[in-house]
Amino acid sequence: MQKDTLEYEHALVAVIEILRARARGGATPLQYGELSAELAQLGYHVPAHEGPMPYLLEDASVRESPDGSLPLLSALVVLKDTGWPSSGFFKLARRAPYARSGDNMVLWTRELKDLAANYGRR
User: Fold this and answer.
1) Can you tell me the distance from the alpha carbon of 66 to that of 85, in angstroms, rounded to the nearest whole number?
2) pTM given for the model
3) Cβ distance 72 to 92 under 8 Å?
4) 51 backbone φψ class: left, alpha, beta (φ>0; ψ -120 to 50)
5) Nearest 5°: CA angle at 79, between 51 and 83?
6) What count of other Cβ atoms lies within 10 Å of the Cβ of residue 89?
7) Are 16 and 73 contacting, i.e. CB atoms less than 8 angstroms apart?
């Protein structure tokens, strides 16, 4: 699956819907492998730690919050070994227009709290 293709666009919409549902359900994180499995059930082959997965997660956050005003959906996806998001999440969160502050723990827990609050109202 390549970026800027119809297949990628459909997979991106699926990622956004999966993560929105997770955010509405209390913003409980899910592992990369779980997200990959959910996408596979929908017909999208997206390996957990390679290929398009990092691009899909970044694009999901950017699409949902292009101006940085909403919490980042990609905060919900964590590594199995650590239970934390990958370094890519923290890089995205700290760059413009998001410019999230605080150490990794503060930043991430704030993002999860904001996801639960924001999507719980929808």
Assistant:
1) 20
2) 0.92
3) yes
4) left
5) 165
6) 25
7) yes
Question: What is the tens place of the pLDDT at every residue in 31-75?
Answer: 999 999 999 999 999 999 888 999 999 999 999 999 999 999 999
What residue has token string 């005003």? 69
Q: Which amino acid is at 61?
A: S
* Tokens encoding 21: 């549902």
Residues 6+ apart with CB under 8 A from 81: none
Copy the structure tokens of residue 68.
């940085």
DSSP readout, 74-85?
GGGEE-TTTSS-
Could you tell me which residues are beta bridge partners of residue 78? 31
Rounded to whole angstroms, the Cα distance separating 121 from 50 reads 34
The length of the chain is 122
Radius of gyration, CA atoms only, the chain: 13
